[in-house]
Amino acid sequence: MSIAEQQRCPMVVVSGNSHPELAQIVAEKLSTHLCDCRCYHKSNRETVVEIKESIRGKDVYIIQTGTKDVNNDMMELQIIAYACKTSSARRVVGVVPYIPYSKQSKMRKRGSIVCKLLAKMLSTSGLTHIITIDLHQKEIQGFFDIPVDNLRASPFLIEYIQGTIPDFRNAVIVARNPNSVKRVTSFAERLRLSIAVIHGEEKDEDEPCDGRTSPPPVMQEADFGLHSIPGARGRKVRTILAKEKPPLNVVGDVGGRIAIIVDDMIDDVMSFVKIAEVLKERGAYKIYAMATHGLLSSDAPRLIEDSCIDEVVVTNTVPHEIQKMQCHKIKTVDISGMLVEAIRRIHNNESMSYLFRYIGMDD
């Protein structure tokens, strides 16, 4: 960044309360300081934002991610963005490494598409641009009325595999469900490895069934049952069995190999633990779990420590220092450099396609 550009439109980096460590690293790499912005709660839990520096005519970059206190994090982000907008900032860019509610991006039963609601709220709060990493679904970008740059952390995780796992050539990349095959295939192609897919699910006896498991499977004539029902005037009707997923099974060969489970986030680790047990039964001698966002909710550290998973690798999009102290198996990959380059390019009005072209994030 030239001195003339800095003087024409200075850059201001603002940190929320969700991930101050990442904000400090980004500010240091940008050779700037964090803006004196105070965000706190009053006694009645209302959020108050005070910006102690002038940001008139400046480009403001707000670094705030989703954590376990997700509702406060997103409300803070919106209030800070609106405060910058009303303080006459030139541009207000939200650097949100992990956008929460991303799994609620489809209508399920009688729920709602919460991710779209959050996108509308962020778009109207004063943000003019958003930088994020590994959205749960790429289509979520369409929920926003402002530009969204969805960066990829896969190059950093692939570099970790190549530099840390000595015999990674004997590994197989595992998709924890059929929906993750596309992401896993991208990893496997770059590493020149094969893939395996986990099919089925663990049975939950307490899960209610409201009959909405459609479409039903195609049945043969012998599979239909004939039943008489009241009011049918003696006619017999055919009933079709409800769709049912089989128990956990591995599609692919993992015997005598390293299994690397890849996903976009690790929140409730119980599913990863069960998958690891199945992989161990199938002959995998070492098991890694890799994801971009390490939420590691509830008693995740204890479950990981007691499981047959050898290592859990996540990036620092979400703070998890406390979990790392509780479990030595959790490792962190730093992605601050990618955020710094994205901020620099947006500030200088340079093309973002360089990141996708040369860092290999076009999967």
Q: How would you describe this structure to a colleague?
A:
This protein has helices spanning 3-8, 20-29, 70-86, 114-124, 154-164, 181-191, 270-281, 300-306, 321-326, 336-347, 353-358; strands at 11-15, 37-41, 47-51, 59-63, 91-95, 129-133, 148-151, 171-175, 194-199, 225-228, 236-239, 249-251, 258-266, 286-294, 311-315, 330-333. It has 363 residues and is of the alpha/beta class. α7 (270-281) links the parallel β13 and β14. The longest helix is centred in the first third of the chain and has 17 residues, at 70-86. The protein is globular and about 60 Å long.
Task: Summarize the SSE layout with pairings.
Blueprint: H1 3-8, E1 11-15, H2 20-29, E2 37-41, E3 47-51, E4 59-63, H3 70-86, E5 91-95, H4 114-124, E6 129-133, E7 148-151, H5 154-164, E8 171-175, H6 181-191, E9 194-199, E10 225-228, E11 236-239, E12 249-251, E13 258-266, H7 270-281, E14 286-294, H8 300-306, E15 311-315, H9 321-326, E16 330-333, H10 336-347, H11 353-358
Parallel strand pairs: 1-4, 4-5, 5-6, 6-7, 8-9, 8-13, 13-14, 14-15, 15-16
Antiparallel strand pairs: 2-3, 9-12, 10-11
Helix pairs in contact: 2-10
